């Protein structure tokens, strides 16, 4: 079972020797290996090589053909009834160099559970030893890209998919409370070699960006995963299923990891492509030498045919997977007739906000239309099938309890209002509350509450406009 997959560019001057050196350091640094430094002395310049212990095996392919250098390693280890296979493939051309890493895990016993998937250490080892390369204008690195105020155009091109990146973009928007929902440094470290983490500088930047991209940007602390070439967006909020920054971080990392598993790998970064390159180089060497050794010719062609067959099998498996995915979406669309609505210029300010608003409006319409009419039947069926998230109700109740006994702006009240997305400014005898940085939603709150009902009235007035 495939548990991890990624490809990324590395620093162009890197050659096969540097790649092999980094891979050896990674393997020798593992507490699980029994290999010694001398046993991993890969002396071949063009060909195949292997070594093994009682529960480990490493295979290597090195080939140069058609202006391209290839080096591929396959490391297999069997532990605790699990077989792990790690494929690391290096491909260098005149203009760039890339590496591909794929990890599979198979159980040797039906009762053995597969462990949770994690990013292999080899990814960080290659980045630190060789340096990340440039992917669509962005450097592959362990740190995030902090945008500057003048980089609106770059941010817009990243979001709409006009920058030709191979890796996805994880866009971290600036929160209404002046902070980020996740730690950008930690997130970038965990996603190094898997995605580019891009960090928004401030709220004015976000508002300008919204105009440039037609509200396709996430904002207010939301984190958006944008796929290359305008392949869609997935948004992640702090709250609900992800109540803490760490939980949110884990959800984002898992989303990227899972998506990379389902993406077809770059051909140049696969084990089969390295096998094909080797057979081609052997054939070219025999041909240039004027060899008449038919057996060697046959063996060379057999290797190339085997590699091509493996590539064909991979392609056929990919087609089957995509057909399966297509059937899933087709079945969803056919089940009762799915309805899709565009939100226009508005975006979710918290998880499920727009859905809750639409469902609430439909629920309120059921008793206002002609009884036993087609319209009432459709509205009731849609409401029953789409119960909403309940997040709006929870927030409304939280606001009510927060202001129930309001007397002054103490720490608890201030913290609660900020958690709901309010910024707080002093304005004479009142505080000015601005919801989610949007000047359409400004509310006065007295600096001193007169009685219990006063706080509840304020909560009711606010809730009517924002919930």
Describe what this molecule looks like in 3D.
With 467 residues, this protein is α+β, with helices and mostly antiparallel strands. It has four domains: 2-132 and 265-321, no CATH class; 135-237, 3-Layer(aba) Sandwich (Glutaredoxin), CATH 3.40.30.10; 353-385, no CATH class; 391-466, no CATH class. It contains 13 helices and 16 strands. It has a six-stranded antiparallel beta sheet with strand order 1-6-5-4-3-2, with helices on both faces. A five-stranded mixed beta sheet has the order 9-11-10-12-13, with helices on both faces. The protein has a three-stranded antiparallel beta sheet with strand order 14-15-16. α3 (152-160) packs across α5 (203-212) and α11 (391-403) packs antiparallel against α12 (411-420). The longest helix has 41 residues, at 294-334. The radius of gyration is 28 Å and the shape is elongated. The chain starts with a strand and ends with a helix. The mean pLDDT is 87.
A few lines on this structure:
It contains 13 helices and 16 strands. The chain has 467 residues and is α+β, with helices and mostly antiparallel strands. Helix 1 crosses helix 2 (121-130), helix 9 packs antiparallel against helix 10 (374-385) and helix 11 (391-403) runs antiparallel to helix 13 (452-466).
Based on the model shown, name its key terms.
21% strand, alpha+beta, Glutaredoxin, 40% helix, 467 residues
N-end to C-end Cα span:
45 Å
Q: Could you tell me the strand content as a percent range?
A: 15-25%
Helix fraction? 40-55%
Question: What count of structural domains?
Answer: 4
Average pLDDT, all residues: 87
Provide the gyration radius in Å: 28 Å
Strand order of the largest sheet: 1-6-5-4-3-2
Coiled coil: 298-332
Keywords: Coiled coil
């Amino acid at each position: 079972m495939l548990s991890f997959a990624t490809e990324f560019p590395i620093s162009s001057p890197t050659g096969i020797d540097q790649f092999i050196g980094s891979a050896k350091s990674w393997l020798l640094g593992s507490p699980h290996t029994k290999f010694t430094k001398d046993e991993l002395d890969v002396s071949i310049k063009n060909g195949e090589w292997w070594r093994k212990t009682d529960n480990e095996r490493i295979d290597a392919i090195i080939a140069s053909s058609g202006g391209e250098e290839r080096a591929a390693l396959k490391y297999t280890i069997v532990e605790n009834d699990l077989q792990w296979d790690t494929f690391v493939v290096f491909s260098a051309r005149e203009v760039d160099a890339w590496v591909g890493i794929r990890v599979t895990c198979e159980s040797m016993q039906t009762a053995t559970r597969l462990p949770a998937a994690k990013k292999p250490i080899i990814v960080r080892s290659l980045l630190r030893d060789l340096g990340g390369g440039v992917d669509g204008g962005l450097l592959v690195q362990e740190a995030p890209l902090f945008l500057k105020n003048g980089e609106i155009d770059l941010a817009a091109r990243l979001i709409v998919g006009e920058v030709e990146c191979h890796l996805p973009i994880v866009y971290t928007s600036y929160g209404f409370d002046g902070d980020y929902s996740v730690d950008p440094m930690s997130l970038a470290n965990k996603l190094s070699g898997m995605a580019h983490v891009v960090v928004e500088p401030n709220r004015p930047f976000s508002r300008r960006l919204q105009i440039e991209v037609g509200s396709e940007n996430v904002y207010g602390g939301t984190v958006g995963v944008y796929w290359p070439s305008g392949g869609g967006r997935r948004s992640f909020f702090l709250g609900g299923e992800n109540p803490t920054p760490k939980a949110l971080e884990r959800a984002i990392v898992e989303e990227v990891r899972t998506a990379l598993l389902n993406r077809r790998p770059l051909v140049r970064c696969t084990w089969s492509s390295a096998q094909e390159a080797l057979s081609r180089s052997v054939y070219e060497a025999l041909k240039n030498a004027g060899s008449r050794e038919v057996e060697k010719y046959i063996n060379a062609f057999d290797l190339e045919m085997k590699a091509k067959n493996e590539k064909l099998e991979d392609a056929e498996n990919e087609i089957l997977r995509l057909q399966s995915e297509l059937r899933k979406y087709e079945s969803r669309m056919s089940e009762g007739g799915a309805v899709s609505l565009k939100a226009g210029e508005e975006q979710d300010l918290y998880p499920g906000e727009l859905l809750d608003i639409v469902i609430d409006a439909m629920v309120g319409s059921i008793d206002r239309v002609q009884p036993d009419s087609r319209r009432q039947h459709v509205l009731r069926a849609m409401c029953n099938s789409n119960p909403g998230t309940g997040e709006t109700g929870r927030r409304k109740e939280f606001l009510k309890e927060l202001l129930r006994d309001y007397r002054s702006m103490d720490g608890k009240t201030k913290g609660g209002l900020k958690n709901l997305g309010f910024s707080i400014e002093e304005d004479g005898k009142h505080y000015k509350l601005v919801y989610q940085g949007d000047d359409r939603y400004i509310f006065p709150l007295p600096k001193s509450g007169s009685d219990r009902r006063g706080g509840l009235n304020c909560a009711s007035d606010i809730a009517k406009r924002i919930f």
